[in-house]
């Protein structure tokens, strides 16, 4: 039994057993694989509930639903929006998330900056993209010193109504 | 065996046999649901409709608390400009968080290129996000089982279990994963798992004014979006990697990878 092999082997075995015992206690019980199998879905099942419990911020639009909801209190803003032109843009895009508004947040943000409008209205010469369909202006020339909303109504941008 | 015992056990056997098999089969609704789980979320992107406004990126970052200042994002929009003299430009300033408000193309390292409008051959926008692959390479490389494919399709990260080793970033061929500067662990698009669980559309689908982004349960062939995937000419990114992406694109160009 005086072999030089035994001692190191025992040490190794002890380490392996130690790790396995540690793992037994450290790894949560609900580890397992989902339908996609061990390779793709080995995980802690309760992590799915964690993911589900993340806070929701945006209301569901289904755009029409959104307009109906906002119209309860902001009838004017909604009413003047026709389904064409800016009617396709959900209110929350410009005013921020509104899940529990008007309780929390009591007021939504109002961004009067030029950047908001330029997202869609900077003139880009891309005839092959849908961008082409939106009337564009050159931000470096079109009334540079003023915010867009001083002249245009963001809810009803129709030029005839200006 | 005594006679008494024999009679006893015979009665037990006969009684047992006379109970219909189905009665023993207690039905656990959870098990049934799990067995014919026919939800599998898929994404459809119509690149023809995208105008590059970036509201999807803004909504995603807001919904999921990714700081606007951080150079990481779960979804982004790329601009492709091909000139008539056969040059190609691709950019995505800030992941298009603020849209494309300038006609010049960002070449990186603070350099910009103004392209002559006469010279623009074709140009378009392509929204991108995690493809939630059916066989995701990122989950294979995770050494601790912190990233996984759920039974309904989305690939998620277990934030508390992730050790932030960074393998997943290299494993993803789409560059959809990143290191979250706040939680210091892996992070990626979840298909807004928390919203899906409440039957809401994802933040980005919700935000898109032009209908360029859509979601569907691809197992439900009556879903209008599923029908679009079935009936239209759709493509996926980097098919050759064998990842079986679940984000389908209408109007995909070969240069888009």
Count of DSSP strands of chain A: 2
For the terminal residues of chain B, how far apart are their CA atoms? 77 Å
Approximate shape of chain A: elongated
CATH topology of chain B: Alpha-Beta Plaits
Give the helix level of chain A as a range of percent: 25-40%
Largest sheet of chain B: 4 strands, mixed
Which structural class is indicated by helix and strand composition of chain B? alpha+beta
Strand order of the largest sheet of chain B: 11-1-13-12
How many helices of chain A? The count is 7
Order of helices and strands of chain A: HEHEHHHHH
Strand content of chain A: under 5%
Rg of chain A (C-alpha, Å) = 30 Å
Structural class by sheet pairing and helices of chain A: mainly alpha
Beta-strand content of chain B: 15-25%
The chain pair forming the largest interface, with residue counts per chain, is: A-B, 47 and 57 residues
In short:
The complex is a heterodimer of chains A (162) and B (257). Chain A has 162 residues and is mainly alpha-helical.
Structure description:
The complex is a heterodimer of chains A (162) and B (257). With 162 residues, chain A is mostly helical. Chain A has helices at 6-26, 37-41, 46-52, 63-71, 75-79, 91-95, 114-121, and strands at residues 31-33, 42-44. The mean pLDDT of chain A is 84. A two-stranded antiparallel sheet of chain A has the order 1-2. Chain B has 257 residues and is of the alpha+beta class. Chain B has a single domain, classed as Alpha-Beta Plaits, CATH 3.30.70. Chain B contains nine helices and 13 strands. A four-stranded mixed beta sheet of chain B has the order 11-1-13-12, covered by helices on one side. Chain B has a three-stranded antiparallel beta sheet with strand order 3-2-6, with no helix packed on it. Chain B is elongated. Chain B starts with a helix and ends in a 7-residue tail after the last strand. Classes of the chains: A mainly alpha (162), B alpha+beta (257). The interface between A and B is large, with 47 and 57 residues.
């Amino acid at each position: 039994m005086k072999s030089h092999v035994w001692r190191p082997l025992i040490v190794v075995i002890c380490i392996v057993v130690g790790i396995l015992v540690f793992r037994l206690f450290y790894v949560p019980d609900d580890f397992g694989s989902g339908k996609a199998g061990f390779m793709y879905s080995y995980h802690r099942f309760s992590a799915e509930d964690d993911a589900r419990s993340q806070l929701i911020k945006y209301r569901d639009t289904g755009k029409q639903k959104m307009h109906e909801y906002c119209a309860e209190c902001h009838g004017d803003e909604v009413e003047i929006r026709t389904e064409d032109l800016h009617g396709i843009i959900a209110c929350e895009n410009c005013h921020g998330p509104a899940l529990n508004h008007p309780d929390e947040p009591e007021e939504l943000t109002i961004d009067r900056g030029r950047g908001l409008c330029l997202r869609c209205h900077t003139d880009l010469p891309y005839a092959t993209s849908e961008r082409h369909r939106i009337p564009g202006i050159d931000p470096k020339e079109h009334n540079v010193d003023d915010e867009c909303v001083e002249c245009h109504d963001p809810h009803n941008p129709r030029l005839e109504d200006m | 065996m005594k006679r008494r015992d024999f009679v006893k056990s015979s009665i037990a056997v006969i009684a047992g046999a006379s109970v219909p098999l189905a009665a023993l089969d207690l039905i656990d609704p959870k098990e049934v649901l799990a067995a014919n789980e026919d939800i599998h979320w898929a994404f459809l992107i119509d690149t023809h409709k995208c105008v590059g406004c970036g509201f999807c990126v803004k909504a995603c970052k807001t919904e999921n608390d990714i700081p606007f200042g951080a150079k990481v994002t779960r979804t982004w929009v790329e601009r492709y400009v091909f000139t008539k003299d056969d040059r190609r430009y691709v950019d995505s300033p800030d992941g298009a968080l603020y849209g494309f408000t300038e006609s010049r193309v960002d070449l990186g390292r603070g350099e910009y290129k103004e392209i002559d409008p006469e010279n623009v051959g074709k140009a378009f926008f392509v929204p991108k996000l995690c493809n939630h692959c059916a066989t995701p390479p990122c989950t294979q490389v995770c050494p601790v089982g912190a990233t996984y494919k759920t039974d309904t399709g989305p690939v998620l990260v277990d934030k508390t279990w992730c050790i932030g080793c960074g393998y997943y970033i290299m494993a993803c061929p789409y560059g959809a994963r990143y290191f979250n500067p706040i939680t210091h662990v892996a992070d990626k698009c979840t298909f807004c798992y928390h919203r899906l669980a409440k039957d809401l559309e994802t933040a980005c689908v919700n935000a898109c004014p032009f209908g360029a982004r859509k979601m569907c349960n691809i197992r439900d062939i009556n879903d209008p979006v599923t029908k679009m995937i079935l009936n239209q000419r759709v493509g996926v990114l980097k098919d050759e990697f064998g990842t079986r992406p679940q984000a389908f694109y209408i109007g995909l160009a070969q240069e888009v990878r």
